[in-house]
Structures are given as C-alpha cells and as structure tokens.
Write a structure and sequence with these properties.
Helices cover about 50% and strands about 5% of the residues. By secondary structure, the chain is an alpha+beta fold. Among the domains are: about 290 residues, Collagenase (Catalytic Domain), CATH 3.40.390; about 180 residues, Neutral endopeptidase , domain2 (Neutral endopeptidase, domain 2, Orthogonal Bundle). The strands form 4 sheets. The chain has a 4-stranded mixed sheet, covered by helices on one side. Strands 3-4-6-5 form a 4-stranded mixed sheet. The chain has a two-stranded antiparallel sheet with strand order 2-12. The longest helix is centred in the middle third of the chain and has 24 residues. It binds zinc ion (ZN). Zinc ion (ZN) binds next to helix 20 and helix 22.
Length: about 675
C-alpha cells in the first residue's frame, strides 16, 4: 500500500470578504450557459442537465479514455509546460544544470530515429544481469540491487504510529495488472482481458527476440495468478491498521526466511532500524514462490517485469504493442498521445520541481494564494460550526475533532523549498531508456535518504503544476497546488457562488478526508491513534454505511455496479465537501451588506449557480472500457456519480432546484446521508 494520501481527484467571519477582489468590480457568474442541456429537466438527470452541453461540444479525442473539464485543464497545463520546456531546449546550457537536464531528457524522448535504431538494445545489460544469476542463493542480492524486479515495493514515509519519524515501508507488488481481481474473476470482460494480457506478454517476448514466447506467457500468468491469490484487494488495502505491521529486521527474517534480508538491505545501502510490512500474507507467499518455483521461471518473471517497465521508453514498434494492451484493451483509447505529450510528462515526472518553479513564476499570480488562504479559513470555520452542531456526536469527540481540524497544515500554490536535482545525471550520449534508469535510481535514492530521519513537514507530495489536490493523514495537511487554482475550479473574475461551488467544494473535500473512514483513524498529529468514544465511532459507521449501500446500488454499466467500499472515503469527502462549502458560502453571503449580496443572474439563483459550478468540474465523456477499469481500480466515483450520486444527499440542492419526490433522483430526507 502506498501512502494513504487522498488526491482529489479562529477567524472573524465578518471581516473575511472572500474571492470578490473589489466591491466595485463587476464579477461574472463564471458559468457558461452553453455547458447546460436545457432540453433535459434538472430533476430528471441533473448531470445531463448541468453538463450535457459541455459533453456534446467536447467529444473524447482519440488519444483519451476519458475527457472532462478536469482533463481539459490538464491539457492546457501540458501545453504551457511544453512551451516552457521547448523554449529552454532551444539554447545551450552548462552540463549538469537543471536546464541541461530538462532539455536533454525532452530531446532524448523526441528522438524516435535514435530510439528505433537502438530497438531493445538499451535494456540488454539489465536482462543480462538476470541471465547471469546461477543459483537461488544469489537472489537476495539481486532483488536488493534491482528495483525493476518488482516482487514487492519499498519506500520511506512517516511511521503511522510515530508520525514525526520516517520509516521503511514494504508494500505488495508483482501484479502487472495491478488489481488481483483481473487474475481471479471469471466474468466475460475479465476473461477477455486475461486473454489479451497473455497475448500481450507473448508479443513482447517475441519482439525482444525470445523463442517459446507463448510458453513464457503461460508461466508469467501462472505465477502472477499465484501472487494475486495472496494479494489484498483494493478494498482490503484501505484499512490502515491491518496494513501496518511494524517489526525489526530479525522479525522480518523469521517471517520470510527465504530471503537473506541483511544481504538485501546491504545491496540497497540502507540500515533500517525497523520497518512496516504492509501485507504479511503477500510477502510470505513471495518467500514461498522464491523457494518453490524453478530458478528459470523466477528469472523469467524478473525479465518480464523489466520488459514491461521498459516498453514506453524504447522503439515505436515496442510502444505500439504496449499501447495496444494498456491503451486500447484496458482503456478503450484509439491512438497514442502525440510524442511531445509523452516527452513533457516524462520530464515533468522526473524533474517536476524544477519545471514547477518555472511554471509558478510564469503562470501563478501571488494574489491567488492570499485569496485561497482566506477561502480555506472560511471553510474551516464552517466545518467547525457543523462539528459543534452535530447531534450524534458527544462533546468529548467533538473537542478532539475540532482540535484536529484547527491543527491542519495548509499548503497552497508551491512549496517553500525546492528539490535539489544535482545528483541526477541526464546524459545526452546515452539512450533514453538508460536515462530513465538514472532517473528511477535518483528517485529511489531520494526516497531512501529520508530513512530514520524526522519527517519534513515542508515536503510536498505533489508538484505545483499538478491539476489536483490532496490530504495526507500522517501530516494532517491539505494541499492545493497552483495547477488546480484555475478555471473551472477557481476564477478571480467570477463571483462567490461560482468559486465556493467549484474550488470551495474541493477544499471541503480535502478537509473531510481528515474525517472520512480512513482519515478519522489518525489523530491531529497524524498518528494512527483512536480519538473517538466507542459509541460515537459506532454511530459514525452507521452513518457512513448509508453512502456505502447507496453507491453499491448504482449501476455504472450494464450488469456492473459501483464499488461502495472502494469509493467510500471519496464519497464521504464529496458529501462533506458539498455541505461545508455550501455552509461557508451562505455564511459569507450573510456577512455582506445587503446591497452586495449576490442576486439572480441569467435566470439562476446564487444557490443554483453553486451547484452548477460544482457539477461543471465533473463534466466529461468516458469510454466503456474506462468505466470498467475505473470501477475496479479507482477509489473515486465516476464523474457522473460524483454529481448524480452526491447531490441527492444534499438538502440544499433540493431547495435550490425545487426537486420533489417526483424526481427519479429523489431520496427521502430520512434516508439521506448525514455525516459531517
Ligand atoms: Zn479525495
């Protein structure tokens, strides 16, 4: 399990005038009427009504599996980054400077002639190290040396029960398809994916010059299925207590004796004092696999991991095989993204802070940060009011909740300190793939450099140019990078109804993650430590079960239902986000002199515009394959259901749109979720 970070996808209320830069300036409503489909009644299908125009005007481009207003902003960010990076690449820079590294990495990706000429040759040295393993005794060292073999993952992050210190964490890995159900489910769709997966492995081994490729594919599928049987599902991985198993290296040695862990950590050049094993059954099964499987089959498994991981960085012909499976079969995409987008994404992923520094300098107005900070404070105050008014929670637990809320660390725009890329080598004379290996090693060394050190609370878990936001339970922090502080989330020229409905709900969503079914198990200092009375916890779980059951009953594709357990944390966060942002919006309106309060515009009341702005964030089209993939893997509900599933639990939405029991979306008041 990776760190449980939730990506989005005492202040004087009367003195905080939010968003509106000046009372004299005329602000727009921020809502393009063309986004609506007024041929549909709001009460029949609110998502279609609010977003149908946008969806008709924005068909999915062939390279996308889902294209929504979120992705459209992502695309425009990518274009801005491309301009920054290519401008840099036009001039010479001193060897070793970040400018040289950015420019060279971009060019190495774009140079398809060189990549095609080299073919699979750049991977051969790594494959030869696997070939040269002669006995099982050599495996512990080999696994410690090569992160590409991927039987399990190792990363450094805060200790969940001692959150000021970093610790080594182990997590399950070894499944090319990620989720165990792809290997075990027997429905028609999963069977067809498994068949295509086997073909994909065969094609790859053939392209890499192996004979018996089809037999190799059977071996890979057999061993990965064995791994899948011992793996936890996406839902089981959501339990922070069950996935925290702190032990010494001696205890690890006793748990999984088939690996020589001292040799393994020596090769990694680390000396962990202790570590948390994420999934014990999985790691034990890995030990048995190392013991029971033939050495040749194990070497084949490592070879496969390396081949699959290298495919995006080699020739066109290898990439086409890769895209055909991951892009077409799994996601329904029609064609790959243009090369420049892949190049920008790679540079961004490798040197994200350096790119981010240039990005915020050019594109992030400092005044956005101040307005966001004020908005966050107002949301915090609204949530505090709501906590204190809860009828189902005792005063003891309320006091703890309020303390946690007011301890939240808030990060907006960009970090105070930027990452140092001095130790990263990007060498234009080497292949693209070799440079990707340098980058992977640099990233791993960076992660391991925090081992046994205090947690750096200034560290960001997202780049500033990213169109997203997160809550991190171990630091109790919410973070809103510069990338998301743009339309359709945030608009300095739009009125409060728009900004509270859009970015306001995003802020409320991230705050609520501190109080969802997972986040609520961490205390104000980020420790996995119960601060609830038993009765309050029971009542909380009864209340969250309403959302769990409701989403389990949503049919997302013919015969396929949403996974209420997988999406529970995100659905709680959407629900809380809407409640908190709406209350903060009403508080803010009430605090204004009456002549400055928002009025009906273009036929929509301020409250109606709040819900339209929220819905527009989720406007989008999605392919059938992608619906199925996300339903298996994505802890977020699909865009349509973040609107049509979330809003029917919000009383204010019924009032704003005068929706009554004749609506197919109607839920009786006593059956609606009511949590935060
Ligand atoms: Zn979230």
């Amino acid at each position: 399990m990776k760190p449980i970070i939730h990506f989005f996808n005492s202040f004087c209320l009367l003195t905080i005038m939010l968003i509106s830069p000046s009372c004299n300036q005329k602000l727009s409503i921020g809502i393009p009427i063309a986004n609506l489909d007024t041929t549909t009644l709001a009460q029949n299908d609110f998502y279609q009504y609010a977003c149908g125009g946008w969806m008709a005007n924005n068909p999915i481009p062939s390279e996308y599996s889902r294209f929504g207003s979120f992705d459209k902003l992502g695309l425009s960010n990518l274009e801005q980054l491309n301009e920054l990076i290519t401008t840099l690449g036009k001039t010479e820079h001193p060897q070793g400077s970040v400018e040289q590294k950015i420019g060279d990495l971009y060019r190495l990706c774009m140079d398809m002639d060189k990549r095609n000429l080299l073919g699979t040759q750049p991977v051969q040295p790594t494959l030869q190290t696997i070939d040269s393993i002669t006995c099982k005794e050599e495996l512990s060292a080999a696994l410690g040396k090569a992160m590409e073999f991927g039987l399990w993952g190792m990363y450094v992050d805060a200790d969940s029960k001692n959150s000021t210190m970093n610790i080594l964490n182990e997590c399950q890995a070894g499944l090319t398809l990620g989720e165990k159900s792809y290997y075990l489910d027997k429905d028609e769709h999963t069977l067809s994916i498994r068949k295509a997966f086997e073909q994909y492995i065969t094609q790859m081994f053939t392209a890499f010059g192996y004979s018996n490729a089809d037999k190799h594919a059977q071996t890979i599928l057999r061993i990965e299925t064995r791994i899948a049987q011992a793996s936890k599902s996406n839902v089981e991985l959501r339990d922070p207590i069950a996935n925290y198993n702190k032990m010494t290296v001696d205890e690890l040695q006793a748990l999984v004796p088939q690996v020589n862990w001292t040799t393994y950590f020596n090769e990694m050049k680390i000396v962990p004092e202790s570590l948390s094993v994420g999934q014990i059954e999985h790691l034990q099964e890995m030990g048995r696999i190392l013991e029971e499987e033939d050495l040749d089959d194990l070497k084949l498994l490592f070879t496969w991991q390396v081949i699959d991981g290298s495919a995006p960085y080699l020739s066109d012909s290898i990439y086409n095989i890769y895209f055909n499976f991951y892009g077409k079969v799994l996601s329904g995409k029609e064609q790959p993204s243009p090369l420049w987008k892949r190049a920008v994404s790679t540079v961004n992923g490798t040197l994200g802070d350096a790119v981010g520094q240039m990005y915020v300098k050019k594109y992030f107005p400092e005044e956005n940060k101040q307005r966001m900070l004020a908005l966050v404070k107002n949301l915090q105050l609204a949530l505090q009011e709501r906590i204190l008014a809860l009828t189902w929670m005792s005063d003891t637990t309320k006091a703890q909740a309020v303390e946690k809320l007011n301890s939240m660390n808030i990060k907006i725009g960009y970090p105070n300190q930027w990452r140092d890329y001095t130790a990263l080598t990007i060498d234009a004379n080497e292949s693209y793939y070799t440079n990707i290996q340098y980058a992977a090693k640099f990233a791993m060394d960076y992660s391991l450099s925090f081992l046994n050190k205090p947690v750096d609370r200034e560290k960001w878990y997202m780049y500033p140019q990213t169109v997203n936001a997160y809550y991190n339970p171990t630091t109790n922090e919410i973070c809103f990078p510069a990338g998301i502080l743009q339309y359709p989330f945030f608009d300095m020229t739009a009125d409060d109804a728009f900004n509270y409905g859009a970015i306001g709900v995003v802020i409320g969503h991230e705050m609520t993650h501190g109080f969802d079914d997972q986040g609520s198990q961490f205390d104000k200092d980020g420790n996995l430590n119960n601060w609830w009375t038993e009765e309050d916890r029971t009542r909380f779980e009864e209340r969250t079960k309403v959302l769990l059951d409701y989403f389990n009953n949503i049919e997302v594709a013919p015969g396929v239902n949403a996974n209420g357990a997988l999406t529970l944390g995100e659905n709680i966060a959407d629900h809380g986000g809407l409640q908190i942002a709406y209350q903060a919006f009403c508080n803010n309106e009430a605090s204004k002199p009456s002549e400055q309060r928002l009025t009906e515009q273009e036929g929509f009341t301020p409250a109606q515009r709040f819900f339209l702005a929220y819905s527009h964030v989720w406007a989008g089209n999605i392919r059938a394959e992608e619906i199925l993939q996300r339903t298996k893997n994505d802890p977020h509900s699909l865009g349509k259901w973040r609107v049509n599933g979330a809003l029917p639990h919000i009383n204010a939405w019924y009032e704003a749109w005068q929706i009554d029991s004749s609506s197919p979306m109607y839920i009786a008041p006593e059956e609606r979720a009511s949590i935060w």
